[in-house]
Design a protein that fits this description.
Number of domains: 1
Helix content: over 70%
Keywords: Membrane, Transmembrane, Transmembrane helix
Number of helices: 3
Protein name: Threonine/Serine exporter ThrE domain-containing protein
Order of helices and strands: HHH
InterPro entries: VTT_domain
Shape: elongated
């Protein structure tokens, strides 16, 4: 249902692809790390004391923050553009 609703939006291909790619990065990173951790458990029998590298955690947090900020700014701009278009249409209707 959401895909159908979004298909009616006038989002250009470039921003759509960039936003999708940035939005998918944190999830992809999480899935890859989960796979690496799962493989280590299977191959090593759960021994060896797996731990997360602080750099990995920092990278994941920064990537997530950038994605959230980018999506927020894009949504805010889209809403402002829609409001501006609505206002212009109202003004045209009032003149007629």
């Amino acid at each position: 249902m959401l895909s159908g609703a979004l298909s009616t939006c006038s989002v250009e291909l470039g921003p759509y692809v960039l936003g999708s790619w940035i939005g998918m990065l944190p999830g992809t990173y999480a899935y890859v790390n989960a796979g690496v951790a799962g493989r280590a458990v299977v191959m090593e029998g759960g021994e060896g004391g797996m731990s997360l590298d602080p750099v990995q955690i920092g990278l994941a947090l920064v990537t997530s923050a950038v994605a959230v900020a980018f999506i927020g700014q894009t949504a805010k701009k889209a809403i402002e553009d829609m409001e501006q278009e609505d206002e212009q249409e109202r003004q045209k209707e009032q003149k007629q």
